[in-house]
Design a protein that fits this description.
InterPro entries: Ribonucl_Kappa (IPR056552), RNase_K (IPR026770). The chain has helices spanning 11-36, 40-43, 52-82. The protein is mainly alpha-helical.
Length: 89
Amino acid sequence: MPVNIRPVVSAGLAGCCTVFSVFGIIILLALGSFFGRHVEGLTGSTKDPADPDHVAKMCYAAAVIYGAFVVFCGLQMAVHRRYPRGVQL
């Protein structure tokens, strides 16, 4: 019995979400790496976070959440490819 899967978001929105999420993952992984290494430009001031290791962990956690968005939106794009344009879903 085939599963009838309908898209939740439009194809354009799914593509846009995927692209922005990939950029978000890259930026958050870089920031997490910099905070994990205690880069002086991010941790040298008195107004910077007191625990840069915790900030690095939160950056990595946010990157995982963005990864879930990449998976979801990628699956949405696959569902859109399954149905030709103009088909009533």
